[in-house]
């Protein structure tokens, strides 16, 4: 059975200022599978929180237009990214969309465990398949302060797409914003993903969300400030 859980919390930086989180999460069932979308609004942009919310809603809406058959597996990844981007643009009232710039991570998984992933910008996508962890997010290039995002990048090259098949119990896909991934060293990514999956499998969806929210709120890295959002789809 496919299960899923996710949580999003405001970081200490925003809490101190009395501001809302600039992350967004949408996790919904879909024909026996799941659609998980995670977004992180760019902190320097005035409407980034709204941009992040619009991004996860656009991703959900586009996936829900797909026909019930397995044809969705063959949809051109570029066309899907374009559809999401256009819907996101239409949802924003401002002529300057860059004021709502945001990253977006999306995983769509059907009832048979066939999953497709799209990513624009920072954050991390990890698959755990057949006992092997794989980072699906490409190694970052360019300067450390450069973030690719909806609202600032229009090129297809800004997107990363992957296909994954969840086959065995415990296979999983995890999406997380950089408020989490930047604090997990590369050599610990696999262990982190396995630990999260193990804890979520012990719990109901509601209890898993509660556990995840507690862990993200009491994040162990000293001096952390960023918002944190994580979604997981797993076979149980």
TrEMBL record:
Residues 11-214 form the PPM-type phosphatase domain. Gene3D superfamilies: PPM-type phosphatase domain (3.60.40.10). It comes from the Bacteria. It comes from Ramlibacter agri. This is Protein phosphatase 2C domain-containing protein. It holds the Pfam family PP2C_2.
């Amino acid at each position: 059975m496919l299960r899923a859980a996710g949580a999003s919390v405001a970081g200490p930086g925003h809490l101190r200022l009395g501001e809302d989180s600039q992350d967004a999460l949408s996790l919904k069932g879909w024909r026996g599978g799941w659609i998980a979308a995670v977004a992180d609004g760019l902190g320097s942009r005035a409407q980034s929180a709204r941009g992040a919310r619009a991004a996860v809603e656009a991703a959900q809406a586009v996936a829900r237009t797909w026909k019930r058959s397995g044809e969705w597996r063959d949809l051109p990844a570029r066309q899907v990214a374009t559809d999401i981007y256009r819907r996101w643009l239409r949802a924003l009232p401002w002529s300057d969309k860059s004021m709502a710039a945001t990253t977006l991570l999306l995983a769509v998984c059907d009832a048979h465990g066939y999953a497709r992933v799209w990513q624009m910008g920072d954050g991390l996508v990890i698959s755990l398949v057949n006992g092997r962890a794989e980072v699906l997010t490409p190694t970052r290039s360019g300067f450390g302060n450069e973030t690719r995002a909806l609202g600032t990048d229009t090129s297809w090259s800004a997107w990363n797409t992957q296909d994954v098949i969840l086959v065995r119990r415990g296979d999983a896909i995890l999406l997380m914003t950089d408020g989490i991934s930047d604090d997990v060293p590369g050599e610990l990514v696999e262990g982190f993903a396995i630990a999260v999956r193990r804890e979520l499998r012990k719990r109901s969806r509601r209890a898993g969300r509660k556990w995840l929210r507690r862990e993200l709120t009491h994040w162990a890295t000293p001096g952390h400030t960023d918002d944190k959002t994580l979604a997981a789809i797993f076979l149980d």
